[in-house]
Amino acid sequence: MEIFKRMEQHDYEQLVFCQDKNSGLKAIICIHDTTLGPALGGTRMWNYDTEEEAIEDAIRLGRGMTYKNAAAGLNLGGGKTVIIGDPLKDKNEEMFRAFGRFIQGLNGRYITAEDVGTTVADMDLIHEETDFVTGISPAFGSSGNPSPVTAYGIYIGMKAAALEAFGDDSLEGKTVTVQGVGNVAYTLCKHLHEEGAKLIVTDINQEAVQRAVNDFGAVTVAPNEIYSQEADIFAPCAMGAIINDDTIPQLKVKVVAGSANNQLKEERHGDELEARGIVYAPDFVINSGGVINVADELYGYNNERAMKRVETIYDSITRIFEIAKRDGIPSYIAAERMAEERINRVKNSRSQFLRNGHNILSRR
Ligand SMILES: NC(=O)C1=CN([C@@H]2O[C@H](COP(=O)(O)OP(=O)(O)OC[C@H]3O[C@@H](n4cnc5c(N)ncnc54)[C@H](O)[C@@H]3O)[C@@H](O)[C@H]2O)C=CC1
Ligand SMILES: CC(C)CC(=O)C(=O)O
């Protein structure tokens, strides 16, 4: 991979490679854009097959956070970390403390939180070494695990997408296929079950599947069968790039609305959904509940204030469909424009010199 060429493609600011032999830490921090403020984005731990795959994931996820934070109205830039390793076997205390020291070295340019493969306990270890971490234990005055809040945002965003597709935002009686029933999707299934939706779930982890069957009466299918189910809504809640040339022709749903980051393998797959009349709730808008919640910690966490902002996801998704219709563009482009316009407005207004400028971290 020609790294600088790849970074120039979407004007990435910084890639940081962190290595600690003692703990086995191999991490890549991607800081995409800090126009709006310090970069905030979670840390993913995953057993990547190759280093190139890990770099590419960090790069795609970091840029996604720039768009997510901008579209959510947060005063934060975008970044993400990937740690190479198996989260079930390779974690240790020293690893997260070493990682915390690397974050501290960035002096506030990057703030972390949970993502796939990392937990509140891991964030607490990072917190031993740096304040630039969110999603730590509520005992520290923090907001804790962001997943239930992300799930709530997906639920209300899905209702907004249902209104667009079916003319009614009720999910009662709707069949929802759910790919991956992990931290986010378990709570999403709970909301959907409580509203009377029917669930078809899949996961590569049988325990996770069984929990959804026991708790919500979900029907299960094999991982490769999830795309072709007769259903109303598809909720991708596992990994990215699952809307692609292979899967789109299999879809029978009218809505795609889920938590996974980077659902479209390539942008043209968003065009393809549009051409098939499938309503797509852009991932970085519908899944912003978690980051909205952890970002509130930077002001001194207030659950009521954070949840009020999370509730705006319904209106944001509705607005995106309005812009898409008004301008004759697919929803993913409408969402990108919304984020880019905000970043560009702020970029253009930062012309005055200010010694010791004030920013979101000034209180820390
Ligand atoms: N946790 C959060 O607050 C947020 C999560 N997201 C995104 O949502 C997605 C899910 O996140 P979490 O629930 O936190 O992760 P998780 O790791 O708890 O859950 C993911 C689940 O997907 C399953 N899975 C992986 N590959 C699969 C496949 N090919 N087929 C079926 N199942 C598969 C895993 O076994 C796991 O149960 C990720 O893409 C994450 O980046 C986005 C915003 C916030
Ligand atoms: C898990 C969130 C708190 C942040 C993040 O990384 C995301 O929204 O993808």
Automatic annotation (TrEMBL):
It holds the Pfam family ELFV_dehydrog. Pathway: Amino-acid degradation; L-leucine degradation; 4-methyl-2-oxopentanoate from L-leucine (dehydrogenase route): step 1/1. Its EC number is 1.4.1.9. SMART domains: ELFV_dehydrog. It catalyses: L-leucine + NAD(+) + H2O = 4-methyl-2-oxopentanoate + NH4(+) + NADH + H(+). Residues 144-351 form the Glutamate/phenylalanine/leucine/valine/L-tryptophan dehydrogenase C-terminal domain. SUPFAM superfamilies: Aminoacid dehydrogenase-like, N-terminal domain (SSF53223), NAD(P)-binding Rossmann-fold domains (SSF51735). InterPro entries: Aminoacid_DH-like_N_sf, Glu/Leu/Phe/Val/Trp_DH, Glu/Leu/Phe/Val/Trp_DH_C, Glu/Leu/Phe/Val/Trp_DH_dimer, Glu/Leu/Phe/Val_DH_AS, Glu/Phe/Leu/Val/Trp_DH_bac/arc, NAD(P)-bd_dom_sf. Keywords: Branched-chain amino acid catabolism, NAD, Nucleotide-binding, Oxidoreductase. NAD(+) binds at G180, V181, G182, N183, V184, A185. GO terms for biological process: branched-chain amino acid catabolic process. The active site is at K80. One of its GO terms (molecular function) is nucleotide binding. Belongs to the Glu/Leu/Phe/Val dehydrogenases family. This is Leucine dehydrogenase. It comes from Planococcus massiliensis.
